[in-house]
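Lab notebook, page 48
Experiment: co-folding of the full assembly
Goal: obtain a model of how the components sit together before planning crosslinking
Operator: M.T.
Materials (sequences as entered):
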Amino acid sequence: MSAPARRKTDPRPVRTRHLARLALLALILPAGCASRNDLYVLLPGKDGKTGALVVESEGKKQTLDTPYAAARVKNVGSVDGLQSSEADVKQEFGPALEAQPKRPVSFYLYFQRDTDEFAPESRALVNQIFAEIARRPAPEVSVIGHTDRVGSMQYNDALSLRRAERCREELIKLGIPKVRITVAGRGSREPEIPTPDQVPEPRNRRVEINVR
Amino acid sequence: MKSALVALTLVLAFGVAAAAAQDAGQIKTSKGSAQIERSGQKLAATVGQVVQQGDVVITGADGSVGITFRDNSLVSIGPDSVLAIDRFVFDSTTHQGNFDASLKQGTLAVISGKLAKQSPDAMKVKTPAAILGVRGTEFVVRTGPAKD
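Observation: model returned without errors.
Model output:
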């Protein structure tokens, strides 16, 4: 309403008025027009826990710490918070999410005391582990042996490695190439169940097989 | 018969040698046009191909790539994307190290791994407009110039 009236009475030449309008625009949008189309979205964790993501653009910060909390950066130096949703994320990020590799998975095999012989219930797991490896593209298998705290450190290091190697042999027998499997022995350093020294604990006599 | 078939499939899938310790990760999924730029050379970003520090992964309009890193970080990009692996250092015993990546354009999905779990500053993702601090988490990123 006031604009036409102002235009009639504005004594400044057209070019000056145009420049003034540009200057006003520059004040509203510091970097000129919207220059970026950036979107950052925190997703809920599969384990039910949602982590946090800090989005920072030239000192401006936004912490995302709830499911589907999002930040938009339209210009460098401005971070706007917003709420996204599962449907929005699917729509915007479908192909990237579909390309996500399978999550790594760990299996635990247990052993009889002071041997590299499987505990009875663990023997059957080997085939299941093989099946998991077989259905993954370019699988990598890491086998890490552990012991309980009976015996010396040195003895347990060797025993844990023997247990890991035993698992590798079983997987090779089923057809997994040796180059796909790495083995390590951690001795009694990482007990599943913490115990005093020299205490037998079946749950610590184990091998972790991580497949990814 | 069925097990023989599985064995054959395995032999084919395992044709590529296992990742050496200094490799950062390995490509697990690949679709459409996808390449890795490594010291001036272009390699096909096929399943089983290793990814190293310094690599740039590039997809075309129909492309996507998914990579599993040694620390179990899962990183994937959608079409028309450019992702640089600026730094990847991981000590598998202590879980310490650094993972810096830059998404130059396109879309990215991340499930962080052992590095981010061990230390909140270990994993950084950059875009042309922002730096992301990753506190053990799953997230997606889109970056690019505004279309208007």
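Interpretation: Residues 19-143 of chain B form a domain with the Jelly Rolls fold (CATH 2.60.120).
Next step: discuss with group before ordering constructs.
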